[in-house]
Amino acid sequence: MAMYQKVDPAIPKTVQRMETNAQTRDAAAARVLCVRRGEFASVWPDSFSEAYPTAIVANFVDVAARDLAANLSPLPSLACSAGNMQSDADKRRAEKKNRIGANYWRESHLQTQMKYGADQYLTYGFVPLYVEADYDRKMPIIHIEDPRGCYFDLDRWLRTRRYARVWRQDRNELAALFPEYAYRILNDEKGRQYASDTTKVTRYIDGTNVTLYLPECGNMVLAQYAHGMDRCPVVIALRPGVEQNPRGQFDDVLWVQLAHAVMAALTLEAGHKAVQAPLAVPSDMNEINIGPDAVMVTDSPEKVQRVPLNVPSAAFALGQELQTEMQAGAGYPDTRLGNGP
Question: DSSP for 97-157?
Answer without folding.
Answer: HHHHHHHHHHHTTHHHHHHHHHHHHHHHSEEEEEEEEETTTTEEEEEE--STTEEEEE-TT
